[in-house]
Amino acid sequence: MYELCRETPADTPEVEALLDLCFAPGRTALSSYRLREGVAPVGALCLMLRNDQRVVLGAIRYWPVRVAGLPVLLLGPVAVHPTAQGEGLGAVLMRESLERAAQQGWQRVMLVGDQPYYARFGFARLDGVEMPPPTNPDRVLGLEIAPSAWAGVTGPVEREGAVAGDGMEPQGG
C-alpha cells in the first residue's frame, strides 16, 4: 500500500536522498538543473509516494520555465527507489501529476528523457525547443495538455524569474 502526497519542505532531505540514490552523483550539473537554480518548484505538482513504513519510494517534481515567453512546466526529476522499480510507481506519479497540472490550467509540459518510456504518457520530441547545452535534442520531449499548445512554440528554454515560496500558479498562454 502506498500513500500519494505532496512534497513539503520538510520532505526535501528524504527526496534528495532518493534522487542521489537513483541518479548519478553529478546530476546537479545537468542543464535542467541550471534552469531550476533560485526558482521554487511548482509545489502543488511535486508529489511523493510513501510506503506503510513512511519511506519515500517515489517522487516527481515540476519547475516553471518559459519558451518563446510562454509558461511551460519542466518535469523532472522523477525517481523510484530501486527496490520498487517495475511496480508502476513512476506511472502513478506521472499520471496523477499530469492530471493535476491540467486541472490547474497548465497547457504544456516538457522534459529531458527517454522518448520510448515517456511516449506512453503522450510525450513526443520537441523540434525547435532548445535546452541549454549539453543536451541531446532527441531527448527534449513535450506534452500538450491543451490542444495545439506547442504549435509554433520554438526557441530556447529560459529560466523563470526567481520566486519565493512554494511555486507559481499557472499562467495562461
UniProtKB/TrEMBL annotation:
Keyword terms, alphabetized: Transferase
The keyword Metal-binding is annotated on this UniProt entry: no
GO molecular-function terms, A-Z: acyltransferase activity, transferring groups other than amino-acyl groups
Signal peptide: none
Record InterPro entries: Acyl_CoA_acyltransferase, GNAT_dom
Pfam families: Acetyltransf_1 (PF00583)
Domain N-acetyltransferase: 2-146
Protein name: Acetyltransferase
Upper lineage: Bacteria, Pseudomonadati, Pseudomonadota, Alphaproteobacteria, Rhodobacterales
